[in-house]
């Protein structure tokens, strides 16, 4: 089994800017792979199928898709397909204002942009109408022009274009959903995802929001239907399955990369969830 990880540095043309933008015309299926960055697609022509471990989506003109790093996905049934494609490190969004970062759209499209997390109420695909399609396409063209031909202050300009692009996407998303009051339970998912490979103490997250652990667990379960601990475990197991599927990493290294302190703990949790050990899971995939 070989790794099918695509790295942003292999695409980007500007060494100091972790971003790549292009008009993408794949004419053959793209085998199962994952990224070390966020991938954003705006389909302009044709159609294709995107398959993840839990979801099958058909892309057509006007569809906007966000795929997070570490989410294994394949693209097939490619028919006259063309899309604006943006790969970027999520740290480029650090400068966005709190109003955008606290929006429902940002939580769904960026903070939790994994298609496989739909069971928690997040959505990482969106059909945009002609008005937004034209505006978002124009921002892609602006970024492309500067990316290919810009010189003085071009990196700063590209980041500003990225911020406008994300803002447009969030506006488009929020125009189509029922607005809800954003609570610490919403903000917490972004914190959990960003620190997935680290030691996460739920009480520390509650303290970050100035509330008690008990109250935090209550509002989190009311919002997502599971406890914060189970939510964290689900995300870690999802990442572990991707690494087992697409890499030759030793089981011990996968456990550490997914935030499990001990290999034995990882094996026990994985076996309880999947019915087989991590080693057996990988062997079944190979077969």
Characterize the structure shown.
The protein has 287 residues and is of the alpha+beta class. It has two domains: 5-174, Jelly Rolls (Sandwich), CATH 2.60.120.280; 184-286, Arc Repressor Mutant, subunit A (Orthogonal Bundle), CATH 1.10.10.60. Helices cover 45% and strands 20% of the residues. It has helices at 98-101, 104-111, 130-149, 154-174, 184-194, 202-208, 213-224, 228-246, 251-257, 263-274, 278-286, and strands at residues 5-6, 19-24, 30-35, 38-52, 56-60, 63-67, 73-88, 125-127. Strands 1, 2, 3, 4, 5, 6, 7 and 8 form an eight-stranded mixed β-sheet that branches. Helix 2 crosses helix 4 (154-174), helix 3 runs antiparallel to helix 4 (154-174) and helix 6 (202-208) packs across helix 7 (213-224). It is globular. It starts with a strand and ends with a helix. The mean pLDDT is 86.
Features:
Arc Repressor Mutant, subunit A; 8-stranded mixed beta sheet; about 290 residues; Jelly Rolls; alpha+beta; 11 helices; about 45% helix
Supply the number of structural domains.
2
CATH topology of the largest domain: Jelly Rolls
**In CATH terms, what is the architecture of the largest domain?**
Sandwich
The helix content is: 40-55%
| Shape, per Cα inertia axes | globular
Structural class: alpha+beta
In CATH, what is the homologous superfamily of the largest domain? Regulatory protein AraC
| The CATH class of the largest domain | Mainly Beta
Strand content: 15-25%
Uncertain stretches? none
> For the terminal residues, how far apart are their CA atoms?
11 Å
As a whole number of angstroms, the C-alpha radius of gyration is 19 Å
